[in-house]
Amino acid sequence: MKIERTKNEPLFHISKNENMTRWKALLVRVGGVFAALVIIGVMSVILIKQNPFKIYATLVTGAFIDVWTLLKDTAVLLIFGLAVIPAFKMKFWNMGANGQVLIGCLVAIACMKFLTDKLPDWLIIVLMIITSILAGIIWAVIPAIFKAFFGTNETLFTLMMNYIALGLVAYFSFAWDPRGSGNLGIVNLMTHHGWFPNIGNKYVLVIIVAVIIDIFMFVYMKYTKHGFEVSLVGESVNTAKYVGINVKKVIIRTLILSGAICGIMGAIFAGSLEHTVNTSICGSKGFTAILVAWLANFDPLVMVFTSFFVVFLNTGAINVSTVFQLKSTDYANIVIGIIFFCIIGCEFFIRYKIKPSQRMHDILAGIKKKSHKGKEGK
Amino acid sequence: MAKKILSIVLALTMLVAIALVGTSCGEKKTVDKSTLKVGLITLHDDTSTYDKNFIDSMYRALENLGLSKDQLVLYTGVDESSDCYDKAKACVNQGCQVVFADSFGHEDFLVQAAQEFPSVRFCHATGTKAHTLGLDNFSNAFAAIYEGRYLAGIAAGMKLNEMISAGKITAEEAVMGYVGAFTYAEVMSGYTSFYLGAKSVCPSVTMKVKFTGSWYDTDKEYTAAKSLINDGCVLISQHADSYGAPNACEEAGVPNVSYNGSTEAQGPNTYIVASKIDWTPFYEYMINCVLEDKNIDKDWTGTIATGSVKLEALSKVAAEGTQAKLDEALAAFKAGTLHVFDTSKDNFITVNGEKLTSYKADVDYDDAFTKDTEVVSGGYFHESEYRSAPYFDVEIDGITLLDRNYG
Hints:
The structure holds two protein chains of two kinds. By secondary structure, chain A is an all-alpha fold.
């Protein structure tokens, strides 16, 4: 009986691991990143047929071709990430950051385009910011209300709100351009009406805003009653209810915050970075931000580094395509894909323990014995 | 506390210093051939026929001028957003003296880069603003591709004639289908000249147009071509950049006239011919201007005569006698006796049955898109003469727009 059991026994036992220390978890993640870098190196050698160290070097120098662009991209990704973390901490899976930012940007551009010459510049800018924030909030709070009162699935709902925003942007970039090219172009290119003032250069503003929101979010999540309520709802809705938290209120309030941050990002796109709106300005940042947040374990301060890391890799990988003239955008996408795959993969090793089973031990012992015997024979 | 303030002040000074170094790039210098660097920014990568054409032409130009491949800084997959400005800046940081971007939506972002780096030249394909903006270092370029489309149209018309005389279709059933990107002048000028080319040899031809609302969308282009075929179109052409339409034609066995380059590999049994813009002549001109420190024309239009507009070789699918007809038209183009948008010919270009005698087009850039220039005179519509980018956006008789798409 006993023999049979060991025969069918799997080679490994997987069990939940609830008490891994922070340091150990961090080490596993660093290991995951390292594994990713090795895989990227091997893949690059196969695809580009170059010395891997040359490729790594190109990747690193490529990221620093323009430091301001690197910092700006980091700041933008960070703001997207900061917008999703409070909801994620609450286990409200907000996939709609892209849509919330886009709709904010769309209304800000509308202000910029149609209020020019009718209002003073500073008032246009104020209106742009206010309307953009409101639009972001509306886009975030609709799924929140449905979730709170009707229990709808927020992942699908927020995802679909993205497509509605995309559709509206596509429609208006056509409607506002009588040439019919479907491309709005930069609004007020000559007059600069409604453009946010440059502080040094046009990237400084978004960097400052990212720092402010980051600090705010850190304090909000860690030291305020609201932040505590959010994490309690995230851990267990029933516990939260039991201690007297109004869960519906918390969901809606938190999504208002998410939407507002997205709205701010939309206003910055409109007034400072893009001066236009089209379906490609958000790219996949709203989704990359989720991974950035996940990687940082929803900690706003750690997220500064994870955002930088992802932007650094992406910029570097694009430079590898450029330097080795791959004529293709695929390389950068593959690099980022590998990184995410390894990082998400290593979450498994953090959450679960893997132990070799008795059978595995027996097999290993068997192999040892054999090799031992073999040596003796010689 | 004092230490903290000092460190903040130091950090800020360093930031300002970096910013100043970044903005004060040197003055115009004559460029040595060996130190020349060219930047190329494309919207997609070489899986798009449109961008592949730009990339391949650039390599040809470099080779023709005796420059090495390494003198090219190539960024593919650059969005029509500030991404274009960022990549233009990256080109400048890597020492490019001239930067070229290939997509319509890149223009405004390239203008921003041009304003910031006056010592570097920026050129842009398909754009409209250079001649109005008056920046010394920003130019638009395009080619009179309507001439090429007209020739491709002749090949299509000959194929229709072949089908009619073989009894496959009646003269009234000579309906062509066209997959367009947007209801925008570049596309409208393109399909109209294609239609006119066909009409010049097959007078009974009519055409249906469907728009995808995207410059590059394999699925949409495929479905649009399919639905045109189901709608009774017996020949398809397209102005969109994927292999969607050629693939749909090959599946259905419907002849296809392509764009941007040969798609014979995608449709060995249906591909007739393709017109395309060859950017090599412009690139060579652009690079030579940089080397000789001359100004690049603000608004450069290539033609068949400059070798910028090309027709690929006819495939075996093409009808007999097509080559002779093409040679005839080509000679007339070169002699300047043939005008595609000939408004004087009877029963050729009509709107609601009336001949076109006057038309105001939006040639100069302003925020309100005013239609500012009279473009019909001397018996023809002067396409691409007042500005390189097309401005023919008249809806003429014989062509039905099935939809108007915005994407």
